[in-house]
From TrEMBL, chain A:
It comes from Tichowtungia aerotolerans. It comes from the Bacteria. Keywords: ATP-binding, Kinase, Nucleotide-binding, Transferase. Its EC number is 2.7.13.3. InterPro entries: 2C_sensor_his_kinase, HATPase_C_sf, HATPase_dom, His_kinase_dom, Sig_transdc_His_kin-like_C. It catalyses: ATP + protein L-histidine = ADP + protein N-phospho-L-histidine. Residues 1-108 form the Histidine kinase domain. Transmembrane segments: none annotated. This is histidine kinase. GO terms for molecular function: ATP binding; protein histidine kinase activity. Pfam families: HATPase_c. PANTHER family: SENSOR PROTEIN CREC, SENSOR PROTEIN RSTB.
UniProtKB/TrEMBL annotation, chain B:
It comes from the Bacteria. Keywords: Coiled coil. This is (2Fe-2S) ferredoxin domain-containing protein. Residues 2-29 form a coiled coil. It comes from Tichowtungia aerotolerans.
Length: 182, 130
């Protein structure tokens, strides 16, 4: 089970990149009452049949690891939503892409801690491949946005540790500013 | 910390780059590859990634790059990290928590000795110390 909400988010974005998406949009929104996030991609999507099975932990398409009969990414999301009286939904169309949404009351006692967003975002942005990841991060009415392409243009190689360190510092400063404002 | 703009970030990068070029001209000779499947994330891949970044920054290791991959199929030993480096055997480390990540940076990347007690895929029995 994932320890923080950021872990759930990372898992979803990793799914999108692995589904061959060239555009991924992540929104993470907090208000005093609610916490919500969504990941929308234009990856390969899922058929109705696969979609129905995707929340079953004992289903995997078996392509990546032929003998492993579990797939826990989405089931973790739904388990967390169930545990906190929240809601998780998946909408997908084969060949078009997938939208995953999650929302829950911010004060539920069983809600996992939010986690370190700057580190999570750095990891998500620096994943291998050529894709655009746009992140919109909102607390109440304040927000900041990140774009993978823009950061890559600014920093250069996203596998370079110095560049990654700088990116994290940059995102930390955005987070701090947002928390102060929010 | 004051809120940075993209322009600030660009400036910081240029400053770092100059310092880096003076220090290290030989380029990147090592790769650290972190598994980031559901299993990796659940086991703490983010903490490991963060520790790698921090320790490399602290110890001035600039010859390594960090990459990520999905599940490597070794879910039971996550977080799993592959390290490839010139003059060293390719090694897969298992159960890489924060401390282990820091040891890999200091011992493997810096001092060229293996962190034997976390090696998942043993390259050859005669080069590992028990």
């Amino acid at each position: 089970m994932h320890a923080t909400l950021c872990d759930l988010i990372m898992d979803l974005v990793q799914n999108s990149v692995e589904a061959g998406a060239s555009e991924v949009e992540l929104t993470v929104r907090e208000t005093g009452k609610q916490i919500a996030f969504s990941v929308k991609d234009n990856g390969k999507g899922m058929s109705r049949d696969v979609q129905a099975k995707a929340t079953d932990p004992f289903y995997s398409d078996g392509k990546k690891h032929a003998h492993r009969r579990v797939g826990l990414g989405l089931p973790f999301l739904f388990q967390t939503a169930d545990a906190v009286g929240g809601r998780a939904t998946v909408e997908s169309e084969e060949g078009r892409g997938t939208l995953v949404e999650f929302r829950a009351a911010a004060d539920h006692v069983d809600l996992p801690p939010f986690g370190d967003f700057a580190a999570a975002a750095t990891m998500m942005i620096s994943q291998a491949g050529s894709f655009e990841l746009r992140i919109a991060r909102e607390i109440d009415s304040d927000r900041y946005t990140l774009s993978r392409t823009e950061l890559e243009e600014t920093l250069g190689d996203l596998n370079d540790t110095q560049n990654l360190m700088l990116m994290k510092t940059y995102i930390c400063s955005q987070e701090e500013d947002l928390r102060k404002a929010g | 910390m004051a809120k940075l703009t993209l322009d600030d970030l660009r400036k910081l990068r240029d400053e770092k780059k100059q310092a880096m070029n003076q220090r290290d001209a030989e380029g990147k000779t090592a790769q650290v590859i972190i598994g980031m499947g559901t299993c990796g994330i659940a086991a703490g891949a983010k903490a490991a990634f963060d520790a790698f970044l921090d320790e490399m920054d602290k110890t001035g290791v600039t010859h390594a790059t960090i990459k990520q991959t999905g599940c490597m199929g070794l879910c039971f030993s996550e977080p799993t990290v592959e390290v490839k480096m010139e003059g060293m055997p390719d090694v897969v480390y298992g159960n890489v928590d924060e401390d282990t990540a820091r040891r890999i940076v200091r011992d493997h990347l810096k001092n060229k000795t293996l962190v034997s007690d976390h090696i998942f895929d043993k390259p050859s029995t005669d080069i590992i110390k028990d």
